[in-house]
Amino acid sequence: MIEPGTVVELQVERQADFGVFLTDGNEDVLLHNNEMVTEQDIEIGDEVRVFIYHDKQGRITATMKIPEIEIGTYGWAEVVNVKEKLGVFVDIGISKDILVSVDDLPALDHLWPAVGDKLYVSLKTDRYGRLFGKLATEDVIQEIAVKTPAKGMRNTAVKGHVYRLLKVGSFMISEEGYRCFIHESERKEEPRLGEFVEGRVIERKEDGSLNISLIPFKQDQMSEDAQVIFNYLVNRGGAMPYSDKTPPDDIQFHFGLSKGAFKRALGKLMKEGKVYQEEGWTYSSDRKTT
Fold it and tell me: Which Pfam family, any one of them, does this sequence belong to (predicted)?
């Protein structure tokens, strides 16, 4: 039986203007001219290695463009389309994109992969023989994961794609193949499934995996926070009714910062001579009269 999602060798049985028909002795399948990648003429009786899938009309068909991903093998596939209530489509290297069903995606839409994100997938078929993308399980990831060096990893940068979401945090596989965990306390917002993120190592675990943080070092974060405050100040004409005496709830509401982070960032701006405080207000220094 010729099964979608598999690579097989079939014999050329007959030719047509638009391609050739291949057979396994029991079933025939079309190899269209557009799906041939050889410069040599294909003759009746030749053995041809092809990947089997369904075309856009749902007909079983063959291609000589062999994808890395097939039933039983995994690889990275880029998301090329997102369809509400249906799922996301990924490119595996053939002329038809493959659907990863809504049933296999996060319950919250904003955590779905976006176009350009990448998923580590294999292929599966439903009871009608239709091909779908199959997300890698934790067991699959652990099989491909690379053990990290025993020393020298702390505070190094790591980049990679998120492959699993849990309430307590997110799992990522780095470009080097390191398996990484991002606790919910080590991120500003939850990354999407398949999103490419960059973090820093905060701990190497005994099994060779890593705990990482998406939150910058305190000094880097202070610079970001200071810029947020200064931009807010400029947009208000250089004056705002907030200072290091402002209640924490007001700071959180207007800036999304803790009181401590606000005071550190404000102190940085004052030390740099960019702002000054007066009677509970903060002003940009160019407003100060001499």
Answer: CvfB_1st
CB 31 within 8 A of CB 22: yes
- Please give the single-letter amino acid code of residue 240: M
For residue 276, tell me if it sits in a domain: yes
Rg (CA), the chain: 28
Give how many domains the chain has, as a whole number: 4
DSSP 289: -
The residue out of 213, 243, 273 marking a domain boundary is: 213
Instruction: Report yes or no on 166 lying in a domain.
Output: yes
- Amino acid residing at 268: K
Q: Which amino acid is at 263?
A: K
Q: Give the separation between CA 245 and CA 4, rounded to whole angstroms.
A: 67
Query: Which residue, of 119, 136, 153, is where some domain finishes?
Result: 136
> What is the pLDDT tens value at each position of the chain, 290 positions in all?
788 999 999 999 898 888 899 998 888 899 998 888 876 678 888 899 999 998 888 888 999 999 999 999 999 999 999 999 899 999 999 989 999 999 999 999 999 999 999 999 999 998 888 899 999 999 999 999 998 988 888 888 899 999 999 999 999 999 999 999 999 989 888 999 999 999 999 899 988 899 999 987 555 556 778 888 888 888 888 999 999 889 989 888 888 888 888 888 898 899 888 899 988 899 998 877 54
